[in-house]
Amino acid sequence: MTTTGIAITGSGAATPSVLLDNNQLSQLVETSDEWISSRTGIRQRRLATTEVTLSHMAASACENAIAMAGLQPTDIDLIILATSTPDDLFGSASQIQAKIGATRAVAFDLTAACSGFVFGLVTASQFIRNGVYKNVLLVGADILSRWVDWSDRRTCILFGDGAGAVVLQGSDRDNLLGFELKSDGSLNSSLNLAFQPEAKALTPQITIGQGKYLPITMNGQDIYRFAVKKVPEVVEKALFHSGLTAADVDWLILHQANQRILDAVAQRLKIPPHKVISNLANYGNTSAASIPLALDEVVRSGKIQSGDIIATAGFGAGLTWGSAIFKWGK
Q: Is position 255 annotated as part of the catalytic site?
């Protein structure tokens, strides 16, 4: 088994066509465009209709990433789907594998909520570094509109639907420069999409819990305080592992949760605003999709060039958070 390096050679994205802006949202709950945009930076979000499945949206993002990398679906060895909202609770990665015709690939789901893409990036890299697989497809996708309480103005203003993907390939040079992953289950209650069991008696002696999942609940103040404190720390640790400092970073791509969080983290890291990538105004919080969705936009616009150093960080439910530092391209 040979150890090899990693190159991130392709990106892709897909979002639903239906758009819900803040003015339309203000017809559902008592809010306004000024209130939402001033506090979150979000102006609109994309929403999946009943006909849109997560696997279909993710497959489109994957096909775009594979094409940019110059590969065929049959070249892919492994597919990792980072999601909290699969079409099937047993997992949706295999459905993506079938849809794109990646007949040689093994596929599995990974759940780390809004940190899912960063956790997936680190997981995918281990298979390549160990020489087990050569071409890995990582896709972050979520349809959070399925699980939002649309009468709760604290949460319904935040979330949108989308998918983003990258291709990682074995390389002579290792472009994943460093990473740091963290979890703290003691803070789990700050952000939940929880199962609520209801007692069902099978026999006089045996009762089990059956039920359903409840809509998303969140303590926004807890998450804000957590993010502005922990995210700069984890980025600094990942940079330390990379042998770099914040001054070496060309682009900062954080999980697109709230513009205030993006600004506060960048300020603490002393990374200037022109290096901070933000597209949450158009998409809202798309959970595991948010980092690759933002990455693909700036790659396709020509803003990010091969060899640029990108610092990413995800943070969210679990609570989980993590950072990965990588060079874009071969």
A: yes
Tokens standing for residue 319: 């609570």
Contact indicator for 84, 142 with CB cutoff of 8 Å: yes
How many whole angstroms separate alpha carbon 79 and alpha carbon 234? 26
Radius of gyration of the chain (CA): 19
CA neighbor of 83 nearest in space, from 63, 107, 54, 57: 54
What are the two backbone dihedrals, phi and then psi, of residue 320, each rounded to the nearest 5 degrees? -130, 150
The residue from 22, 56, 62, 114 that is catalytic is: 114
The sign of the torsion formed by the CA atoms of 324, 320, 267, 13 equals positive
pLDDT in tens, 183-221: 999 999 999 999 999 999 999 999 999 999 999 999 989
Q: Is 274 a catalytic residue?
A: no
The pLDDT tens digits of the residues spanning 65-115 come to: 999 999 999 999 999 999 999 999 999 999 999 999 999 999 999 999 999
- Residue 207 has phi, psi (to 5 degrees) of -125, 130
pTM: 0.96
